[in-house]
Amino acid sequence: MEFDRLVSVLKEASLPKRIEMLEIIRDSGENGIEHSKLNELVKNGLGLPPSTFYRSLNNMFSLGLIRKDDDKIYLTPIGTLLIDAIQCINDLLEFEYLDIASAFVLTIPPEMRFGVRYIKECKKVDITETSRLVYDLIAGVEKGGKYIDRIIDPDLYALMLKKRKECATEKVISSVDTVIPRLNAEIEAAKKTNFDRDTIEELEEKLEIKVLDLPLQLGVIDERIGVIMFLKDKYFTPIFITEDKKAVRWMDSVFDYYWDMAEPLDKYLEGGMEGWKRRVVEAVS
């Protein structure tokens, strides 16, 4: 029964100008739109004759896409979800890197997949500017960051240690093959800072690492800046960066989803985070 209703909803939505009608109703906001005003807008803007207009309204009402209250028309939650889903699909189809991003899309739950639409509004950064961008972002960290990356750079890690000394915290999801190189780079970075052992031990407490191989690199900084790059086999997209609140929240939720899935470090490094901290601290003279 529910499947039959879905078929009917999609069939109605596929008819000419139906989506545009629903968008007009949605854009009217919580106060709805007067029947006469909608009729005028549809007639003048969409070119639908009155008979088609009334038949469409009746069909959408019977399918639960709209509701009527006195002389006003409103979208129902189902109608709103339909319009949002169609807009999301359209945005995804227009995303030029969808093929590469598909490896990522398939790893997240359905309810999170439409968030890829936010990438369309992000600033695209060429790969040649990646290093400078990463350093600038880390230099600006105030509270902390969440990262999914394969970056092995002692100088960058030294900068991150200094930011931790300024109260920043870090949560990192490392790929399996970069766990040991990451540790070695952290040791080298700790030596570069010239911090004493007590300071390094304190700073390593502000770092959490889990392990999971993923088809993306991602950063959420101070809960206000989001950075993402998609990976598939030997291919990768440009870096996308944004300060849009919805996009950053989506990236943050993506990180948290993977964080729950990721494995503890002790599966790949003896002693886990304590073993990590011990090795780094002992390497500092």
From TrEMBL:
It comes from the Archaea. It holds the Pfam family FilR1_middle. It comes from Archaeoglobus sulfaticallidus PM70-1. Residues 204-260 form the Methanogenesis regulatory protein FilR1 middle domain. InterPro entries: FilR1_middle_dom, WH_DNA-bd_sf. SUPFAM superfamilies: Winged helix' DNA-binding domain (SSF46785). This is Methanogenesis regulatory protein FilR1 middle domain-containing protein.
